[in-house]
Amino acid sequence: MLTNEFKINEVDKAIYLKNRDKYYVIVCFYMDNILMLINNNYMIKSNKKILINKFDMKYLTVVNVMLWIKITRTYNGLILSHFY
């Protein structure tokens, strides 16, 4: 990750960050899951290629629930709530 312009988060070593101008990428590793938070479609494609080349993985879908947190997409952004 570090060789691909990511910086490691000093608080949580399982989180990597990349900033380019007004675009950002946050990659979170948890057990056998990878969560990518990206605010640009081109950045999604290019960073997905980086991860696929480095890890044995498949792209499933947009995440709805992770770690008992429900993620709802709205026009204004994301809503995070507890998932029962």
Provide the descriptors you would attach to this structure in a database record:
84 residues; three-stranded antiparallel β-sheet; four-stranded antiparallel β-sheet; alpha+beta; 1 helix; 7 strands
Would you mind describing this structure in some detail?
With 84 residues, this protein is an alpha+beta fold. The protein has one domain (2-82). It is built from 1 helix and 7 strands; from the N terminus they run E-E-E-E-H-E-E-E. The N and C termini lie far apart (34 Å). The mean pLDDT is 81.
Compose a concise summary of this entry.
The chain is α+β, with helices and mostly antiparallel strands and 84 residues long. It contains one helix and seven strands; from the N terminus they run E-E-E-E-H-E-E-E.
Summarize the helices and strands and which ones pair or pack.
Elements: E1 7-8, E2 15-20, E3 23-30, E4 33-38, H1 41-54, E5 65-66, E6 69-74, E7 77-82
Antiparallel strand pairs: 1-2, 2-3, 3-4, 5-6, 6-7
| Structural domain count | 1
Order of helices and strands: EEEEHEEE
Distance between the amino and carboxyl termini = 34 Å
- The count of helical stretches stands at 1
- Give the overall shape, derived from the CA principal axes: globular
Estimated radius of gyration: 13 Å
Give the strand order, joined by hyphens, for the main sheet: 1-2-3-4
Structural class: alpha+beta
Unreliable spans are: none
Largest sheet: 4 strands, antiparallel
Average per-residue pLDDT, rounded, comes to: 81
Q: What is the share of helical residues?
A: 10-25%
Strand content: 35-45%
> Could you tell me the number of beta strands?
7
